Amino acid sequence: MDSAFLTGGTGFVGASLARLLLQKGLAVKALARKGSDRRNLDGLSVEIVEGGLADCSSIEAGVKGCRYVFHVAADYRIWVPNPADMYRANVDGTESVIRAAAKAGAEKIVHCSSVAAVKVPEDHTPVDETSEYSSVDEIVGVYKKSKFLADVLARKLARVEKLPVVVVNPAAPIGPRDIKPTPTGKIVVDFLNGRMPSYIDTGMNIVHVDDVAMGHWLAAVKGRIGERYILGGENLTLKGVLDELAAVTGRAAPRFKTPYAVAYAFGAVDTAIARLRGVEPMAPLDAIKMAKHYMWFSSAKARRDLGYESRAARLALKDAADWFTANGYVRSKTAV
């Protein structure tokens, strides 16, 4: 029986991927920190390798004997009190996993990057994998900077050192088991709890988390070493996302658009106050800066080369809303 090792298996995308790998008949090992929340793997026949991305011995134990290695773990936060922690996890951790997997003889190493590593469009035209930042200094936010650096590193290891790495760049995944939740999932939770009185003019690419998981598998069996593939779904404005949520939940979508200048001012003040208090801001300024661009992407390459497919955003948003409601993220008086 072929085996696979994945990091981030207890998280949102990783838990979906773990289920898919088991369905494909693979023996699955997953890296998990000591004391971490493992609810997403409850009931699954997954071997837990206890450790973290900074623990080389646990990574080496995990990759041993595995045909496929999927590096899905990442520190996914828009705001962080200590940026160095995020760079260690997202950049140094990526190199550790890839080198250990290659040394162990893995046939294919799939690195889960992000569309954060793809240069955003200047207008409302979706961009593809060829849209490259020329420098990390062009990028807004520590998270996006760290994912860009890890993306560049992974492809360099494939190109220069001939390590068997394929990169996938998921858009904004939505669906069940978003336990944290992610920043995108938080939009759904806030909507369901009536905490989104208005919206700003921005755009995003919504994709079902299970489609992202399938994209990882397709990259492992069909992806070309050194290439990257955008795993996206449907390009929508934020208003479009909220209208779709209204359609699947029966709740009213916000009607008022907040001017960008007002949102920016609020984000700046909120972030400054939060930093003084040592808490996470409600509206991180980096998130407001990112929202100035329509984050629309094309998955044509993945569809053509991998046979990748994605379902409608409405279905992804409904699955997310249903899961958040069923799992206690929604106040009872506003439940769907």
What would you note in describing this structure?
- The model has no long low-confidence stretch (mean pLDDT 92).
- The termini are far apart.
- With 336 residues, the chain is α/β, with parallel strands linked by helices.
- The protein has a seven-stranded parallel sheet with strand order 3-2-1-4-5-6-10, sandwiched between helices. It has a three-stranded mixed sheet with strand order 7-9-11. A two-stranded parallel sheet has the order 8-12.
- The protein is globular.
- α1 (12-23) packs across α6, α2 runs parallel beside α3 (83-103) and α7 packs across α11.
- It has a domain at 3-180 and 205-239 and 295-314: NAD(P)-binding Rossmann-like Domain (Rossmann fold).
- It has eleven helices and twelve strands.
- The protein has helices at 12-23, 56-63, 83-103, 142-160, 183-192, 209-222, 238-249, 260-277, 285-290, 300-306, 313-326; strands spanning 3-7, 27-32, 46-50, 68-71, 108-112, 165-170, 172-174, 198-199, 203-208, 228-231, 234-237, 256-257.
